[in-house]
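S., here's the first fold you wanted:
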Amino acid sequence: MDSARVLAQRLATQRLSSAPLPRAADAVRLLTCVQSQERDHAFFSLGLRTRHATYAAVRREHDSGDFLRTHILRPTWHFVAREDLRWILALTSPRVLSSMAGRHRQLGLDDTRRMDSGLSLLADLLQGRRHLTRAEIGEAFVERGSAIEPGPPLGHLLLVAELLGLLCSGPQKGVHHSYALVDEVVPPTRARDEDEALVELVRRFFAGHGPATVKDFTRWSSQTVARTKVALAQLGDVLEQVDVGGTPHWFDPEVVPRRSPAATSGYLFPVYDEVVLTYPTVPFPAVADHPFAKHPDPFWARVVVDAQNVGLWKRSVRGGEVEVDVRLARSVDDQGRAAVREAAQRLADFLELELRYLEDDRTPHLWRG
């Protein structure tokens, strides 16, 4: 399989160029865990894969608990379905927590009694579905005389509490993330032994992200190469293996939807979107005259046209408008530029805002499709 076909199949598998899924939670289940370090950008990632999605609709699904936002797989935020939370945490958190021992020591949380005291206080504060923001929790820790300060030590404690399955997201409070007790919002689920859980996680990853490599999976899941290869062997013929430039890739042949006739050729992918973050081996290739940023900025994201990385984009929300600033390679033709403008309009429609579109020369104009 050549790289062009790999890229096209990934877009279809992730429901970006094939028929969109009914709800945002369905997109989360397809991808199993969706990086959501930047929550609002990640909401748009779900919207790109969901039929008739708006920010408000995706937020309602999240606030109702259809899917959760928590630290899982790696020490960063992800969306995950309620029914998948416990078994994925049980499989992946031990390695993640072990890797954080040095940070524990830096923050004075290697003291077991201090850590346990903080975790107990969190459970007490949130009991009875009392959803609190980090700032509110920090104030309560000060009032209770906790030895854990509201700054980095508290942030790290909250991360650990999520990885241990004590806390997860509650509904948003304004623009702020809130916390809930897992036992109050996630029903009990069947426990899986470690081997069964790993095989299932491997199957789910390649079904939602394939074609992909072992390295893609281990980066995503924090699991080892050796254990991943054992799980792949146990799956047998469930996954299909193809060679791409000398590197084995796997995908689920039962989950390869067809490209939709209405599919676009242009995408403004949000920062940390799964289709650009997951694949260091075979990414979208950058055109020769790509206007790469001179200085790193995590909020400049990829513009993709015809499965090529052709530029950068950034958004700003002001009042009733979203300003989309796009920097494109000069080689992008008029048809490609029109596809990028349509992609910007899709973002504006998702946010239910007017679009102010800036392209290269930074001359703003309203674009209404």
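And the second, which I think is the more interesting of the pair:
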Amino acid sequence: MKLSSSLMYAGNPREAADQVTALEQAGLDTIWVAEAYGFDSPTLMGYLAARTETIEIGSAILNIYSRTPGALLQTAAGLDNVSGGRAILGLGASGPQVIEGFHGVPYASPLGRTREIVDLIRRGLRREKLTNDGIFKLPLSKEDGAVTGLGKPLKLLTHPERDSVPIYIAALGQKSVRGTAEYADGWLPFLYYPERAKAVWGEAVADGTAKRPDDLAPLEVVAGGMCAIGEGPETKALLDFARPLIALYVGGMGARGKNFYNDLFCDYGFEKEAKEIQDLYLDGKKQEAEALVPMEFLEAMNLVGPESYVKERIAAYRESGVTNLQITPATEDAPALVRRMKELIAE
């Protein structure tokens, strides 16, 4: 099992990048860089590549709408080059509010779009000429909207560092998870409850795995939560700091009837809480919504408590199929925590 974390910054990623070098020296295997509608991920990933030497650098996530397949191919190849073969391309559909509101692109055909993009990127990294006759038309003909009709199949101009960059998919829905298990290199689930993951996604993962090509390695799974090791009640109290994030996603990340994270909470068995959290959050009562996040979920998702309990959570994540444990250190000495977590994982 690998150990990873996300680049945490509050407006100044340069300062956060300084911490990544210390985490790398402590043994962290992978750093993930989010995008949402803040700073773009590739710029920060390139900056981290210049500041580090061994750590894997992954996007978590780049959405599949605001960049063409060709642009995503260029990004994957460029990041892999400047990092010396340490890039991971994390992709996802994001949500309608960001895609249609911030990028002004129709939120259409996320499943088919993802599959075609992954195929085009893989072919592009092998420097094959890009052609496609699906959601994406390459080259674009006049019948499909081309102005000149002069487009022709092209291959990547430069030689990539590797002819295959790992592609991970952020997926929650059954069809999306099934496709991820079939053709992606890795899976990035969110709000992951290890003991209930199989009940929610087990069938989808099994169905996708049954169709997985023989030349693909087993699916990598990245999941985790806040992490702190300590005996006293002050350590347990740290779980409350996870409430705002969970309430944001379950209650406010989307609209009523169109919130993937709220649906997941229901699938976990928290239907009542999911509805109440959403109602309160959308009514502007955020603190009341946060208070309703079940302690059961907070304890299961996060790795916070005595060392014996943290070891139990590591075992639960491993048993559920997680191969890369993603932690958010809730301590001032994050490198020390990373070193200890690496030791516990190895036991």
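Why I say that: The chain has a mean pLDDT of 96. The CA atoms of residues 56 and 86 lie 5 Å apart.

Talk tomorrow,
H.
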